[in-house]
Amino acid sequence: MHASEGVRAVAVARSVAASLGLPADEAAVLHDSNKLTLRLLPADTLARVAPADDQVAEFEVGLARQLTEAGCPVGALDPRVEPRGYERDGFVVTLWRYYAPTAGEVTPAAFAGALARLHAGMRELDVPAPRYTERVERAQRFLADHARTPGLAPADRALLQETLRSTAEWIAARGAPEQLLHGEPHPGNVLATAQGPLFIDWETCCRGPAEFDLAHAPEEVGAHYPGVDVELLRRCRLLVLAVITVWRWDREDLFPDGRRMGEEWLARIRAAAGRE
């Protein structure tokens, strides 16, 4: 968030928590992107704050409740308050259980096992969600809008457009089964806790092959996931790389060091296309 917006978001989160009987004298920022994630003390609750016009709080809360009830490895909502979004002063706040991090990173085997359990639980849910292809279409629209992605050189723009088109067509032709997915289960959305790896952040939930989720995980994870289609996973990784590269060239992107990452990812896509 922009600095001024972030200050307001922190104040709103503290106010909402206090009104629900959760004292929030201190607020530590854990993550800052399109949403602000805060640890509120002394109540020790996790608050996620989003602008009211850019949030899917009810969807996230509802899905998290269903996944928790199904025994999936997910971060739970704070049981001390009603599970819903709390709207105030232009923001929506959701409150979650805070998990103290454990020492060390999640191993590839543990990551894969937890993701497989999450997918198994998701297959049992009837939840409406967009297909992964909507992200591809959005990225293509950004590429077609030169004013939205002004920094791209013509050759790189064409490369990204072709990579998105051809890779998405290949994946569709593969005809792999599709299911409800997390959408972005990268390491930033996986907590290392005493209970094992727990997945968080459901705003990117979508439908697609399991390999699309795996494409967001570290490469070593794929080797431990049961029944993975290795070639499909390779293509999904390329598709995801092309999509997130487009986001880094968006003139409105606020990702820290985003342009440097965009340059690095473009180089990887050029190499994959044999242009270097």
Give a verbal description of the structure:
The protein is of the alpha+beta class and 276 residues long. It is built from nine helices and nine strands. The protein has helices spanning 3-19, 57-69, 108-122, 133-144, 154-174, 210-214, 219-222, 230-248, 258-272; strands at residues 24-32, 36-42, 45-51, 86-88, 91-97, 179-181, 190-193, 196-199, 206-208. It is globular. InterPro entries: Aminoglycoside_PTrfase, Kinase-like_dom_sf. This is Aminoglycoside phosphotransferase family protein.
What is the element layout, followed by pairings?
Elements: H1 3-19, E1 24-32, E2 36-42, E3 45-51, H2 57-69, E4 86-88, E5 91-97, H3 108-122, H4 133-144, H5 154-174, E6 179-181, E7 190-193, E8 196-199, E9 206-208, H6 210-214, H7 219-222, H8 230-248, H9 258-272
Antiparallel strand pairs: 1-2, 2-3, 3-5, 4-5, 6-9, 7-8
Organism: Streptomyces albidoflavus
Pfam families: APH
Protein name: Aminoglycoside phosphotransferase family protein
